[in-house]
Amino acid sequence: MSKVLIIEDEVEIADLERDYLELSGFDVEIEHDGVVGLKRALSEEFDMYILDLMLPGIDGFEICRQIRGEKNTPVLMVSAKKDDIDKIRGLGLGADDYITKPFSPSELVARVKAHLARYERLIGSNMPENDIVEVRGIRIDKTARRVWINGEEKQFTTKEFDLLTFLAENPNHVFTKEELFRRIWDMESIGDIATVTVHIKKIREKIELNTNKPQYIETIWGVGYRFKV
Ligand code: CA
Q: Distance from the CA of 24 to the center of ligand 1, in angstroms?
């Protein structure tokens, strides 16, 4: 849920903004004082800021300037005077949008939604791509910790996932059960190498067509396991 901080000293306006945004599914916080609002804006994570211009303590111009010094989060400025909009533009504070009072609450909601969508696209495009391991019909998304077998998603426990991923990333290499246990289970773990056998069995039930004739994880008798490429 997107979190919006409203800094607005007029209680009725702040409540109206909050009510409409909450109806649209936003999580909204209000501060009526400029100093307190600025402190929260900088120290907490929000997805959008709605700033009134004239505030007790510290005004919206200064709050916007300080937010911009640290964050790229969208800022919507609210002012009572049309002249102020020119001033906001002129100061180059980096506000993303401005709206004058009185405004229709649905207009405010529409603008907040538009800015959030744009910002999310911007962040999304800067995110590194997920780390994927793919071997013959098995697709492991290491970032999302999800696994698909021939296009169908299967559920794996944490250790099953770690074990499968480790083997798939190190194919054609025989690992003993001791090695696998040491690598996947930390030293504090209760258990022994039989745990490895149990997990291999569970993984095979999910990835192999025929667990008696494994196509992926081979048993090397007397040694351990090998992931076939
Ligand atoms: Ca005000």
A: 24
* Total-model pTM: 0.56
In degrees rounded to 5, what are phi and psi of residue 215?
A: -95, -15
Task: Of 105, 103, 37, 48, give the one whose Cα is nearest residue 72.
Answer: 48
Name residue 58's beta-bridge partners.
none
Closest CA to 107 of 185, 183, 50, 145: 50
Kindly state the greatest CA–CA separation across the chain. 83
CA of 72 to the centre of ligand 1 (A): 24
Q: What is the dihedral of CA 218, 220, 224, 229, to 10 degrees?
A: -40
What distance in angstroms lies between residue 78's CA and the mean position of ligand 1's atoms? 9
pLDDT by position in tens, the chain (length 229):
899 999 999 999 999 999 999 999 999 999 999 999 999 999 999 999 999 999 999 999 999 999 998 998 999 999 988 777 777 776 778 888 989 999 999 999 999 999 999 888 887 776 677 889 999 999 999 999 999 998 899 999 999 999 999 999 999 999 999 999 989 987 666 667 889 999 999 999 999 999 999 999 999 998 999 999 8
Q: How far is the CA of 46 from the centre of ligand 1 (A)?
A: 21
Query: What residue ranges in the chain does DSSP mark as E strands?
Result: 3-7, 27-31, 48-52, 75-79, 97-100, 132-135, 138-141, 146-149, 152-154, 174-176, 217-220, 224-227
